[in-house]
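Case study.
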Amino acid sequence: MLTDELILKLIREEKVVTEPPQKEFRVENQHLRKDFQLTSSDGTRKYSVFMRLHITFRENFSIGLVYHSEEGTSINLFRCNGNHGEATIDILNSIPHFGYHTHRITSELIENNINDPKHSDLTKEYASFEQALNYFCQYVNITDSDNYFPNINQINMFE
Amino acid sequence: MIEEYLNRIKEQFNNFFYLKEKRENILQVFAPFYHADGDMMDIFLSEILETGLIRISDYGLTLMRLSYSFDIDTPNKEKIFNKILAENSIQNENGNLFIEVKPEYIYHGLMLFAQGISKIVNMRLYKREVIHSLFFELLEEFVMDKLQKYNPQKRFYPLPGHEEYEVDFCFNHRKRPIYLFGVNNSANARLATISCQKFIAEKLNFSSLITLEDLDVIGKKDQARLMSAADKQFPSLEEFKKNAEEYLQREEQLN
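After joint prediction, the assembly is written out as follows.
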């Protein structure tokens, strides 16, 4: 049973890259795409990361962490989203928010067999894809991310 | 003129409708069309000046969203995808999905389009792991329907007082029963291996039969352990369905 505490532990535990991302983004339909694989630093748990960036609307992007359990199920634990429009947690009691936001799965959602990270929070941690990638790698604790994204920690004073 | 229609749509949506300029001549629709995670569907309107039609489109954002967890990468998936598009009169231009309607039909177009988007995003339900969870139901359906004459018994516990050693199906049609284990992941491969070894250690008179969902569902080490513990294995549910009856008949003649 994944409790909220355990979910947070999975999101934040140290991870290392096992299958690196492609050097260049792959063009797919109307977006750019990169994917890579991770394990926990003790090698016992498997994760993957997806990165998507819309070609025309650069503010529409998504970077997500997926946990792959031993039983063969996969759960999208955490996602950094761009400023694509409106998001709300409870559609029938909607308090919409707009802007850059993150999504997180909760134990209640998993208990109800919902694998969509429905819980969302506005964030001021990033305002572009590059900043989001930097934040994501730090937040989900990818210890060797510098090897694959060498420039993400450099502050761009024009951003 | 378009303004007039848009005002009418606002009324039709009970005022839960407005537009925001995303880019020049691209208006983003804000209306109660949501994805399961609470994000609003990405729907845009643009006027086609030459024809006077309104293009309702997603600018490829539906397929981008689907790609987080599902890829349309087989002819079968493509067939389902194209069927959804056709059912909802949606056109596809390099992943940009759209409908073109006369201004008076924007409301209908939006409803049809949102319905189509929803179906496409839900194609992730065809994910292997979801289908995977149907494995035991499919196995049971087959056993109970086609192998009834071999007296299948579901959830059989060969060792009284030890419910931790469970057999998915026991065929009691002969002196020496056949214990069938369905295997669709490493965890139940290990459980089947341990159970077979325990039954052997307890000197039970039985034959063990394994049906894998697919060879890829377990690693090589699990495969090797299972192979040395079990008497017979079918590499896939399809193979089992094809050959189970003949196998059980042959076994019956042996005993």
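Observations recorded in class. The interface with chain A takes residues 22-23, 28, 30, 32, 34-40, 42, 59-61, 63-65, 67-69, 94-96, 129, 132, 184-187, 217 of chain B (CB under 8 Å). Chain B has a mean pLDDT of 91. We will return to this complex in the next lecture.
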